[in-house]
Every structure is written in C-alpha cells, then in structure tokens.
Write a structure and sequence with these properties.
Length: 848
C-alpha cells in the first residue's frame, strides 16, 4: 500500500471542535492516522489527523473557558488558520431533556437537525442581559446540505439495522480504560421537581422519586432534532422543564453552538451525560463523549471526499452573506419603526401583574392554531395600547419569535406614513426569519426599483412570495408581526391598503406569521376591518374591559409611580395614601395616559408636588366621558406653565409664544431638536427653552433639549388643535395657520441658504456617497433638510392659495434647481418629484 503524503494546510477541509479535554481525547481516539502539526502559523495548537478520506483539524476551547463567546473565537481562529475548511462538527457532551416524545437515556447521542422554524440549534438565553448588554443572534443557521445528506444516509442504514460500523467505533473505546462503560453507575432519572439531597452521588436521594422507565434493548440511541444552546448551565429539573416547554421539542442543552452557528457552517453532536438537573455529576461524561465521537466518525465516513471538495469554503460562505446583507440594505428602512429602536428605548412595558387579561388573550391567540391570523387591539387614545404592543413585542423578541414590528407615530418622519412600511418589515423579517432571507434577497436582486413601487407590489414581491416559498409552518409557534398605532399613519387610503394586503396575505401566512394590530377605533380602520371577512381576525376592545379590572391596573401603576416621586421629593414613604390613589384612579376614568401625565405633572411640580396632587384631586368629577378628564389635565399642565406673577400684558405675549412654539412641535412632520426648530421658525432658543421647560408632563425632553422634541402621547396633539377640546383661546392652536407659518418659514430658510453646489464639492458629477459624511452634515443642517422635505406638504395643509409673484413663486424662479440638488444630496430626490406634482395641482386649484 502506498504511503500517504503528509497533507498541507490547504488539504484540511473538516474542523472538529470540542469544549473539554475529555471530548478532545475521545475525538483523537477516532483518528485513523495522526499527523504532526505545522511549524509555522498558529496551527500548533491543533491536533491533526485523518478519518476515512478526510483530513480533520481537531480544536479544543481553552481550559475553563466554556460558552458561546469562547466557541466563536475558536471557530474564527480555526477558519483563518485553515482557509480551506468547508464545515465543522461540534462534538461533545450535553444535558438531555427526556420527554414523552423522546426517551433519552444517558449515553444516547443527540444530533442537531433543522426544522421548519429553526436551524437545529436555538439560543435559549437569547435576549438576556450579559456583561456586553443584550446579546442578539437571531435565527441560527442550519447545517450545510452536505452534512444533512450524510445524516440521512446514516439514519437510513441504522433503521435497516446496519450499524456495524458505529458498533465497531464504540467498541474501540472499550479498550481505552478512561472511556470504558464497565464502571458506570446506574442511569436514573428523578422527578423534575425533586432536588438532589447532596453529596457527589445520588446515594441519599429518594428512590421513590425515580421516574420509572422501561428497559431498552439498544445500548445507544441516536436522536435527531432541536438542541438548545446558551451560556447558562442548566442544573435544575424545574428550569429544564420550563425552558423545554417554551422551546417545543428540544432534546438537549449545551453551551457552545450558539456562538458559531451563524459564522461557521456546522453540525452539533452531543452525547448525553446528565439530565440538566440538580442530580447531575460527571460520572457519565467520558462515556457520553465517546458515544458522540463514535457517531461523528460514522457520519464523516459516509461523506464522499469529492463532495467536500465541491462545497464552498467558509470564507466563500461569508462573502455570500455579505452580498445578501448589502442587497437587503438597499431597501428603504424606517429606523425608528422597530419596538426597540434607539428612540423608543425609554418606553416602558406593562408593570408585572397589570394588563394580565389582555396579554393572556393575545398570547392564547398567537399560540392557537386557528385561522384568524390578525388580532386587532382596539382602544381609545390613552388606554395603553402601545405599552401592551411594546410588552408583547419584547416577549416575542426574547423568545426569538418576533418577525417584525412597526410602531407608527404621526409627525415622526418616516414612521408617520406608510412609504417605508413594507420595505422596513421585509428587512426585519429577512433578518429575523433566516429561511426567509434568501427569498427576500432574491426579490430585491430581481426588482431593483422595488423601493419606489406601490405598496401592493412591494408586499407581493417582498413578503407574500417569499413567505409562500417557505412552505407551511405547522407544528411550530408562528412569528409575530406587531403593527402599533395604525391610525397614526397619515394617509387613510394607505391604512386601508395595508389592511387589505394583510388579509389578502392570509393563505400565504401558512401559520408562519401572525399580525397584532393596535389602533384607535377610527373610521378608516373600522371601514377597513368591516371589509375583511370576520373569520380572518379577532378583535379585542380595550375600552370595553370592565372598569374594575382597569382600575386595579391603574391603581398599581399610580402606586408604582407615586412611590418613586415620594422617594425623589423626600416625602413620607406612604405618601399620598390609599385614599388619594383611589381618587386619582377614579379621575383617570380608565385612561393610562391620564395617570402618566398626572404623575409627570406632580413630579415636575417639585416643591409643589403636594399642591399639584391636590389640584388634580379637586377637579370636577361630573363628566363621565374619559376624554373630558384628559382635556382637563392637559389644560392644567398648560396653565401651570404660565406663572401667576406675570402682568396681563406679559401673559398675553407669553401665550403667543407658547402657541407658536408648541403649535410648531405638534404640527411638524418629523421631530426636530430644539435648536433646529428655533432656527427654522426664527425664535431665540433661550426663549423657547423657557417656555418648554415647564412642560415636561407632555413633552419628552429627557435628553435635556439636545434630541428631537417629541410628545409623550399623540392625544396631546389632538387636544391642542381641536377647539371643542381645548376651549381656551389662549392655548388653542389653529393647525392651518401653523402649517401656513411653517410653509413660509421653510421657504424663507431655503431662499436664504440654498445655492448651487451647497456641499461645496466643486466638482460636478460627484456621487452623493463619495462626499464626506460630516461635510454633508455641516452643509445640510437638520432644519434645511426639513424645509426641503416638507415645505410643500405644509403648504398643502395650510389651505392657502398660491398667487403669481408671491414668496413661493419667487422661490421657484430662483431656487427650484438648488432645491432639487439639495434633495439629491439627501438621496430624497423622488420625494421632490412627488412634491412638485402636488404643487402643480395646488397651483391648478388656485388658478380656478
Ligand atoms: Zn440526586
């Protein structure tokens, strides 16, 4: 027989990764031949050898460094030392999860096999806090096809009773004392609720609590399915059962796979050494490691070397991943849409023990396999819909079942309209549901202009078709799409289009996707829902909940908030007492926004917290309309902003400023930081700050006036611009007048700043991308960008007629090209074209 040539670095195509020295020892036992390591490079820390026709690199995690991060580092180093590696196997021990479906015994082997909704491995501590903040890996990749084909072949021959090769490899270990099965203790499984008594073995543990299991003929059984991976060791039966009940069908726990599945195509093979409970000990570890290694050798030996050579290297895979990501990133994206976007980071979730009923309803619906794929949470303004939506989104995100989320907000720029709705959702779905990614990517690659197409075309190509290619998701929980505050989308027609697209999509959803929509009961949405078949959705009306149930939650909320205020203001711990809280709760009449505003109002009162509380308690209780109570508290907040020490004349001036500044904030189409807003409307910043500083109760200025100014709740806008609700003419804001004033301010600002080559690049034909970002930011200040984007919209909403020779006319004569150039620097030219068209129709109307 000819002697084999010693392989070079490029000849190694298979990486075998272990976490423990005992696992590495078992792996080394399975080599048909060992090779010396290379002198140069970082390869000396690897064991090299051959299994059947494959050259294999064995790597082990540094001693004592278990866990996903350590595994990720080892995998990365392995790939860079051996650039021709095609795939990996992660082989070692794990904690079994015996269940009615899977009779898992010690020494059995569990192999990760992808299902419809998972890639074979799922991270169970996903979304938990670690030293580096919340970790997020999303869906973990499935093993490469090559390995899945090999599994099928091995499985088939085992079914036919042809497992002689596996037996031969196992018997090899009987000759190595360290791995022998001769001295193993009994394999006992205790009741999950029964905790270990103590000591190194289960000698003292009650025999009564042993779960009775029948005798089994086979000594080793191979199980295929889901493996749960995470950084926490599970050593408690109850915890094991809890996690297992959340991750349907999980067979085993381990601690490394989640760190490498997405960067290293690999298969996880685990020998079961304990049951992840308090009775676990290390006795079975060597034997379990040996079983996993024997199976791995069996598997590798059925893979033809030619197939390995043809497979892509991990580097090629990575490159492809980059191409996919870059292509998907071409889709327009509303960064503030996701429930956990940076701008929403201070939003709270429901207090524990509150909103229990409604959260349960939503959870039950999403788990049930009924055909109603849409859940409509309908409620008046301020009843807590967004907090509920945020809570649900957080829960599903933590369990990795959040498909996408879009939180609409009027006046919020990209999240105030539906223009980027579908593309944003498509991008989120592609990153959260990995089997979908390829299909969405193909659609974006095929339809390069998809971002500018109609909502329904985008929906069909980016969501419907990819979903239908995924097949049916039966047997697993569905992913959830959360659409919050649909009524805040600024175009009623778009709202109806969205609703009809969602219903039309029902068959394609195939139980893969479910949709939670929250909205107020306003007309376009009710009409929209009335047009869709009742069998497709269920509705929950938040303001129909019995008042007692809501009051219970409101009292909890008030207790929680007032306790914090009492601490901050050094009041008595029991302040303000149960009776005051009860009375406040009654005044809230079911509106959480009333409570939140009241608490902020009291908090802001600082020295006068007590007085403010009393003034709220004194308010009228005559009205039974919740909105009336809200009007009243908003009015109290506004009145408290004007100090009583001013003269009437001074007050008059102050009201004018307040209406101007506050009116601008509620009418802007996209929030601006204070400084930019002041420059736009030409108000000194100091003066605006003085006015707003007393309005914390309604205005989010948590970042000390540096970030964009936002309302705490949209209901304040509705209040301020409705003279039936805001009946005091000192405060009421006439929205048409504000739009007109803003349109004028925008045109004025643009007329004085826009010019040819505004970014000063001095080289025609330069691409927007090639210009330095800071240079662009310096030349295109927020207020200028705002003016360019929204002046036409303000003009439209001001109901003002255009006249020849007016400021707009002058602006168009001198600056229309500068304006379009600026928009193209902002990469928003298409919005300019749309604006020009609507301007044309305005001019037509005015000329009639
Ligand atoms: Zn025990």
């Amino acid at each position: 027989m000819s002697k084999r040539r010693r392989p070079s670095v490029e000849d190694y195509a298979v990486g075998w990764i272990c976490a423990l020295p005992i696992e590495l020892a078992a792996a080394t036992e399975m080599l048909d031949e060992t090779y010396d390591s290379f002198e140069n490079g970082g390869s000396s820390r690897y064991n090299l050898g051959r299994i059947s026709e494959h050259n294999v690199v064995l790597a082990c995690l540094p001693k004592g460094q278990m866990g996903t991060n350590s595994a990720a580092t080892v995998a990365a180093e392995l790939k860079s030392s051996f650039p021709s590696i095609r795939f990996g196997v992660l082989v070692g021990i794990g904690g079994g999860v015996p269940s009615a479906d899977a009779d898992i015994r010690l020494g059995d082997v569990v192999v990760s096999l992808p299902g419809k909704m998972h890639g074979g491995v799922i991270q169970y501590d996903f979304g938990k806090f670690t030293a580096n903040g919340v970790e997020r890996t999303g869906f973990l990749n499935a093993p490469p096809t090559l390995l899945l084909e090999a599994i099928a072949r091995v499985q088939a021959s085992h079914i036919r009773g042809q497992d002689t090769r596996l037996r031969e490899y196992i018997s090899h270990f009987n000759r190595v004392p360290a791995f022998s099965s001769a001295n193993l203790g009994r394999d006992v499984l205790f009741d999950a609720n029964y905790r270990h008594i103590g000591g190194p073995t289960c000698e003292k543990c009650s025999k009564e609590r042993i779960v009775e299991r029948g005798l089994r003929n086979n000594d080793v059984v191979i199980h295929y399915g889901l493996i749960a991976s995470g950084n926490l060791v599970i050593k408690d039966g109850v915890e094991r059962e809890r996690v297992a009940s959340e991750l349907e069908g999980v067979l085993c726990f381990e601690m490394e796979a989640a760190g490498m599945m997405n960067t290293f195509p690999c298969l996880v093979i685990r020998g079961i050494c304990d049951y992840a409970d308090s009775h676990k000990n290390k006795e079975w570890q060597p034997y379990a490691a040996a079983m996993a290694a024997a199976y791995t050798k069996d598997l590798l030996s059925v893979i033809p070397p030619t197939a390995v050579a043809q497979a892509r290297t991990t580097i090629e895979n990575l490159r492809e991943k980059q191409v996919i990501e870059e292509t998907l990133n071409r889709l327009p994206y509303a960064v503030e849409a996701a429930f956990n976007s940076y701008q929403r980071q201070h939003e709270r979730t429901c207090l524990v023990g509150t909103r229990v009923h409604v959260l349960e309803e939503i959870n039950n619906w999403s788990k049930k396999k009924d055909n109603r794929s849409i859940f409509w949470l309908n409620g008046w303004a301020g009843t807590g819909k967004s907090t509920i939506a945020g809570t649900i989104a957080r829960q599903y995100y933590d369990k990795q079942y959040l498909g996408a989320s879009f939180f609409f907000s009027r006046g919020g720029g990209d999240i105030g309209h539906a223009g980027k709705f579908v593309t944003t959702i498509a991008r989120q779905l592609a990153s959260n549901i990995l089997p979908l990614q390829q299909f969405v990517y193909e659609a974006v690659a095929l339809y390069s202009a998809i971002g500018t197409q109609s909502l329904s075309d985008q929906w069909r190509h980016l969501i419907l078709n990819p979903l239908s290619k995924m097949g049916s998701g039966s047997g697993s929980p569905s992913y959830l799409l959360v659409i919050d505050a649909l009524d805040e989308c600024d175009d009623d027609k778009d709202i109806q289009v969205i609703l009809s697209l969602l219903t039309e999509a029902q068959p394609a959803f195939n139980n893969i996707l479910r949709v939670l929509i929250t909205s107020r009961p306003n007309l376009p949405i009710e009409v929209g829902f009335s047009r869709i078949p009742p069998a497709t959705h269920c509705a929950f009306i938040l303001h129909h909940l019995p008042l007692e149930a809501v009051n219970h939650d409101i009292v909890s909320f008030l207790q929680h908030e007032l306790k914090t205020i009492a601490q901050d203001q050094a009041l008595e711990p029991a302040w303000p007492g149960a009776e005051a809280i009860e009375r406040l709760a009654t005044r809230a009449s079911g509106l959480f926004i009333w409570c939140a505003t009241a608490c902020r109002f009291i908090q802001e009162g600082d020295f006068y917290a007590e007085e403010r509380l009393n003034s709220l308690l004194k308010g009228s209780t005559s009205s039974t309309v919740p909105e009336e109570h809200l009007n009243e508290i908003y009015m109290s907040v506004l009145r408290a902003a004007i100090l009583p020490t001013y003269t009437e004349q001074e007050k008059g001036k102050l009201y004018d400023h307040l209406r101007h500044v506050l009116g601008t904030i509620v009418i802007l189409y996209s929030p601006l930081p204070l400084e930019s807003m002041c420059k736009l409307i030409q108000v000194p910043k100091q003066r605006a700050t003085k006015i707003l500083v007393r309005l914390h109760a309604i205005l989010d200025v948590s970042d000390n006036f540096t970030g964009p100014l936002r309302l705490h709740h949209p209901s304040f806008r509705d209040f301020l611009i409705d003279n039936q609700r805001c009946r005091d003419p000192d405060f009421f804001v006439d929205k048409h007048r504000v739009h007109h004033r803003l349109a004028e301010s925008c045109v004025k600002l643009m007329s004085s700043t826009l010019k040819q080559d505004i970014c000063g690049v001095n080289a025609p034909g330069t691409l927007a991308d090639d210009v330095d970002k800071t240079q662009k930011q310096q030349c295109l200040l927020s207020e200028i960008q705002y003016a360019c984007l929204y002046w036409v919209q303000h003009l439209q909403d001001s109901n003002v007629l255009l006249k020849d020779g007016d400021a707009i006319h002058q602006f168009l004569i001198y600056h229309v090209l500068h304006w379009l150039e600026t928009l193209s620097w902002m990469r928003r030219l298409s919005e300019g074209i749309r604006a020009l068209l609507s301007l044309e129709s305005l001019a037509l109307v005015s000329s009639l």
